[in-house]
TrEMBL record:
<dbReference type="GO" id="GO:0043565">
    <property type="term" value="F:sequence-specific DNA binding"/>
</dbReference>
<dbReference type="InterPro" id="IPR036388">
    <property type="entry name" value="WH-like_DNA-bd_sf"/>
</dbReference>
<keyword id="KW-0805">Transcription regulation</keyword>
<dbReference type="Pfam" id="PF00126">
    <property type="entry name" value="HTH_1"/>
</dbReference>
<dbReference type="InterPro" id="IPR036390">
    <property type="entry name" value="WH_DNA-bd_sf"/>
</dbReference>
<keyword id="KW-0804">Transcription</keyword>
<protein>
    <submittedName>
        <fullName>LysR family transcriptional regulator</fullName>
    </submittedName>
</protein>
<keyword id="KW-0238">DNA-binding</keyword>
<dbReference type="InterPro" id="IPR005119">
    <property type="entry name" value="LysR_subst-bd"/>
</dbReference>
<dbReference type="GO" id="GO:0003700">
    <property type="term" value="F:DNA-binding transcription factor activity"/>
</dbReference>
<dbReference type="GO" id="GO:0006351">
    <property type="term" value="P:DNA-templated transcription"/>
</dbReference>
<dbReference type="InterPro" id="IPR000847">
    <property type="entry name" value="LysR_HTH_N"/>
</dbReference>
<dbReference type="InterPro" id="IPR058163">
    <property type="entry name" value="LysR-type_TF_proteobact-type"/>
</dbReference>
<dbReference type="Pfam" id="PF03466">
    <property type="entry name" value="LysR_substrate"/>
</dbReference>
<comment type="similarity">
    <text>Belongs to the LysR transcriptional regulatory family.</text>
</comment>
<feature type="domain" description="HTH lysR-type">
    <location>
        <begin position="1"/>
        <end position="60"/>
    </location>
</feature>
Length: 293
């Protein structure tokens, strides 16, 4: 049996119109075309739905039963289409966003209230992984990734680029002095990353190149942990502008070695799998976030 929505629509229109000729006008078909379509439907069902004479049509017992079911099916289909249409106009549903904790705390959380006011039907789930996480394993729709991307199975959308600064607190500098050259850093307590080698390559010009590889005295997996250590006067750190801008403006952290800075900017992307379409709720979130960044 191969009944489709057109078959149901033809049958219902014939009944509601009262005649084949009236139904043909509503359907934009010829009367003979409507008659053939009705006959094909009866053949598919292997039963008669209508008793037709030259003057009138009457539903058979099977036709009455089928009409009830056909109306219910078409009604459900129209309701489903309307639901999807509304969702397209007003994004809704679960949206799981993953980002390293510094980016989540400094670039996402401050704007959640405004986003929720704009899109109240979106259910946000926010997760933080300081290491690269598998999107499918963690049921993540989009992930914010900082630095170079290596996974070719992912779509990527560039969001922004953030400069890196070498920083220390006034308390640390008062106690240990201010380095004047990149080489002076060897005499200081340095804060850096564990299991993230690129994070320990600071964008400073020196005698041997434009990137200074440091050996941290204190290491952490999270940039936010390193920020807190720097604020507490525990050493010198190199962190992104997006997570330290307010600290710099407030004087809690001080930029160091500005004359030796290479101007390097760290790329920030949103990623999602190539085998998925970019749903509207994902698109509206990225548009909103990019505007804020």
């Amino acid at each position: 049996m191969d009944i489709n929505s057109d078959d149901l629509k033809t049958f219902i229109t014939v009944i509601d119109s009262g005649t084949l000729s009236a139904a043909s006008v509503h359907l934009g078909q010829t009367t003979s075309g409507v008659s053939r379509a009705l006959s094909r439907l009866e053949d598919k069902l292997a039963t008669s739905l209508l008793t037709r004479t030259t003057r009138r049509m009457e539903l058979t017992e099977e036709g009455t039963l089928f009409l009830e079911k056909a109306r219910a099916i078409l009604g459900a289909m129209e309701e489903a289409e309307e639901t999807i249409r509304i969702r397209r106009q007003k994004p809704a549903g679960r949206l799981c966003v993953d980002a390293a904790s510094p980016f989540m705390l400094h670039c996402v959380v401050p704007h959640v209230a405004e986003f929720r006011a704009m899109y109240p039907e979106i259910r946000l789930e926010l997760s933080s992984n300081d290491q690269i996480a598998d999107l499918i394993e963690h049921r993540t729709d989009i992930a914010i990734r900082i630095g170079a991307l290596n996974d070719s199975t992912l779509h990527a959308r560039a969001l922004t680029a953030s400069p890196l600064y070498v920083l220390a607190s006034p308390a640390y500098l008062a106690a240990h002095g201010t380095p004047r050259t990149p080489e002076d850093l060897a005499q200081h307590t340095l804060l850096g990353f564990v299991q993230y080698e690129l994070g320990n390559q600071w964008p400073l010009r020196h005698a041997n190149g434009n990137s200074l590889t440091v050996t941290p005295s204190i290491s952490a997996s999270s940039g936010e942990t390193l920020r807190q250590l720097a604020l507490a006067g525990q050493g010198i750190v190199c962190l992104a502008d997006f997570m330290t801008r307010t600290d710099i403006e407030a004087g809690r952290l001080v930029k160091l070695l500005a004359d030796d800075y290479t101007g390097y900017r760290q790329q920030i992307h949103a990623v999602y799998y190539r085998n998925t379409q970019l749903a509207q709720r994902i698109s509206c979130f990225l548009d909103f976030l990019q505007q804020k960044l």
